[in-house]
Design brief:
Elements: H1 8-27, E1 30-32, E2 35-37, H2 39-47, E3 52-58, H3 70-77, E4 81-87, H4 93-102, H5 106-109, H6 119-124, H7 132-138, E5 142-147, E6 164-168, E7 176-179, E8 182-185, H8 190-206, E9 212-217, H9 256-259, H10 266-300, E10 306-312, H11 333-336, E11 337-338, E12 340-343, E13 351-358, H12 362-370, E14 398-403, E15 415-420, E16 423-428, E17 433-437, H13 454-467, H14 473-479, E18 484-488, E19 493-496, E20 502-506, E21 520-525, E22 531-533, E23 536-541, E24 546-551, E25 560-565, E26 589-595
Parallel strand pairs: 3-9, 3-10, 4-13, 5-6, 5-9, 19-26
Antiparallel strand pairs: 1-2, 4-11, 4-12, 6-7, 7-8, 10-12, 14-15, 15-16, 16-17, 18-20, 20-24, 21-22, 21-25, 23-24, 25-26
Length: 596
């Protein structure tokens, strides 16, 4: 669904299209009760409640730099929800962008960062035939891409799913753009041009009954940072952050590729200081883009029906662990952590979420909010529950980190690892590994040796193996701890009706065959300390992830009962229930209640 640009030719064509559409609508009037309803009115009724989306993706913006970007945090965070633990599964532009578009790990979409595994390969594999853009476009959304797309994109090609296309072509340091098939060179700052394109699209979309989706990929703050002249003197006193792992003194615990880096020189530190300020200055243009976009949404009355998502394709390092060349691509926290702020309809203002969200989740989240089906190949999961005022108690506890290409600088060996809520464990193809307890060592200064930590290594290796080659629902299952997250009746409830059944709601989809009278049991707690089994039928409702135990007869008045879901209950990947992962072995779930 292509909207007409503001040109004389386009304006005339727009009038003709409107007249033609009006004539067609009159021709297809149908009787609906006592009213005549046009197809156009029906379309408006179908799409009026569907939200719009503005997805702003910066390039190489690390989470740490957000502390300096007060304007963005005020516009987005004060009016939306900030995710403190957002990550990418591969800290490199092209693999991450492919993941964002399709919701898959790199080992599934095939874009792994090698010199030949860039946008042309994404196209050759046919992966751009099904992305969040095609899903929404087929559902009637107006779609537009603005800015940097994927590495090595060039030429007249326009991927499917995008009604309008305004994408950078060629290297990141030039301003050549494919404007709906026509090549042009931008004058001035590219972020400013992207802001204009975005606002223009929103204004024209407002006149159309269909909702819209616009994805904006800025060059900022990618090197060399593109700074508008108006901001050349900003951040003059901003100091390059020097956390405890900056120019790390002792790297004996690190793999050989890190040990190969010498301590930073004064010249290197000075250059990083200059680059740091330039990166921040370039982000002020992104702040302006967000401000202009929000103003346009307010002007058109679309602000209350639009989700704005602000994030980055990967993080960045500047001297941490002695690393300067390459500036990303590593499995360290500085590179895999990204900023993420969401504002929109019903999203709590000023809220903070600690749950782990990854770039696999962006596409399914947008699809869920848009009411669009999610393809089965998607590895990620919608984080819409985290946008509610009361987020769920159970959430992802691990994800897979991948680094499947060995670039020259830095010479990071091929690796795969697992990042849990507490640990970072990475295996390199050199046979080396790293393990950090992030609760006590957030800067990853001391890798734990395998000797003396055999059980922990075994646990993390097992979990890594479960995700290493996963796909679809298996990925989602193995990223979660399988738990009972709520019960009916609640634990220690009193005055429970004798006719009540007993229910256990799980954190994820369960294997129905594992939910039986053997794994979900109810007993009466007798006064003499013994128990009596309650005969019951057990069923599982996959739609609600709920197990239901229905006693064969009414429960006894005044009696106390104990319900138990055993570790025999399994998720779709075969993982056993583990109600308390902090304890050794799998733990069952038990709770008591008293009948009135």
């Amino acid at each position: 669904m292509r909207l007409q640009r503001h040109t004389t030719h386009g304006h005339v064509r727009h009038i003709l299209l409107v007249l033609a559409a009006t004539a067609l609508a009159v021709a297809v009037l149908v009787l609906d009760g006592d009213r005549l309803v046009t197809d156009d009115q029906r379309a408006r009724a179908q799409t009026a409640s569907r939200p719009n989306f503005v997805f702003v993706m910066t390039d190489d913006l690390d989470k740490q730099s957000m502390h300096q970007l007060d304007g963005i945090r005020a516009m987005m965070g004060s009016n939306g929800t900030t995710f403190e633990n957002a990550f990418v599964n591969y800290a490199l532009c092209c693999p991450s962008r492919a993941t964002i578009l399709r919701g898959q790990y790199p080992h599934n979409h095939g874009i792994t960062g090698s010199p030949t595994s860039l946008e042309p390969h994404f196209r050759e594999l046919g992966e751009d035939q099904s992305t969040v853009a095609t899903w929404l476009d087929k559902a009637g959304y107006q779609t537009k891409y603005v800015g940097k797309y994927m590495n090595d994109y060039r030429g007249p090609y326009i991927p499917p799913g995008w009604d309008e296309w305004f994408a950078l072509s060629g290297d990141v340091d030039n301003n050549e753009v494919n404007d709906d098939g026509q090549s042009l060179t931008l004058a001035g700052n590219s972020t400013d041009a992207f802001a204009t394109e975005t606002s223009d699209f929103i204004r024209r979309s407002h006149a159309n009954p269909a909702p819209f989706f616009v994805m904006v990929g800025t060059k900022a703050p990618h090197s060399p940072p593109e700074v508008p002249e108006r901001y050349l003197n900003s951040f003059a006193n901003a100091s390059l952050p020097r956390p405890p792992n900056f120019d790390e003194v002792d790297v004996l615990d690190k793999p050989a590729w890190v040990k190969a880096f010498p301590r930073l020189t004064l010249d290197q530190i000075t250059k990083e200081q200059t680059k740091y300020r330039q990166r921040l200055r370039s982000m002020l243009a992104v702040e302006d883009l967000l401000r202009q976009t929000i103003a346009t949404l307010q002007e058109t009355g679309e602000i209350d029906n639009t989700y704005i998502i602000f994030t980055s394709d990967n993080g960045f390092h500047q001297g941490q662990h002695r690393l300067v060349p390459g500036e990303k691509k590593t499995p360290y926290e500085e590179d895999i952590r990204i900023p993420l702020i969401v504002r929109g309809p019903g999203v709590p203002a000023g809220a903070i979420r600690k749950q782990m969200v990854i770039n696999n989740d962006f596409a399914p989240t947008i699809a869920t909010l848009a009411g669009v089906p999610i393809p089965t190949f998607v590895d990620g999961r919608s984080f819409t529950p985290l946008l509610a005022a009361s987020p769920p108690s159970s959430w992802r506890t691990a994800f897979l980190e991948e680094g499947t290409w060995q670039p020259n600088v830095p010479p990071v060996p091929m690796n795969k690892g697992i990042r849990t809520t507490r640990y970072s464990y990475v295996e390199y193809d050199t046979g080396e590994h790293e393990l950090y307890d992030l609760s006590t060592d957030p800067y990853q200064l001391d890798s734990k040796p395998q000797a003396g930590n055999e059980q922990l290594y075994s646990t993390l290796q097992t979990r890594l193996n479960a995700l290493r080659d996963c796909s679809g629902a298996v990925c989602r299952a193995n990223e979660w701890d399988t738990q009972v997250i709520s019960t009916i009746p609640k634990a220690n409830a009193t005055a429970v009706p004798p006719t009540a059944d007993v229910r256990a709601i799980f954190s994820e989809d369960m294997r129905a065959s594992s939910i039986t009278a053997t794994t979900f049991k109810l007993v009466t707690l007798n006064f003499d300390g013994t128990t009596t089994n309650v005969t019951a039928t057990v069923s599982y409702d996959a739609a609600t992830e709920k197990a239901i135990l229905n006693p064969s007869s009414d429960l006894s008045s005044g009696a106390t009962y104990k319900a138990t879901v055993t570790t025999g209950a399994q998720d779709l990947a075969g993982n056993a229930l583990d109600q308390n992962p902090t304890l050794a072995g799998n733990q069952s779930k038990s709770w008591k209640f008293t009948v009135q």
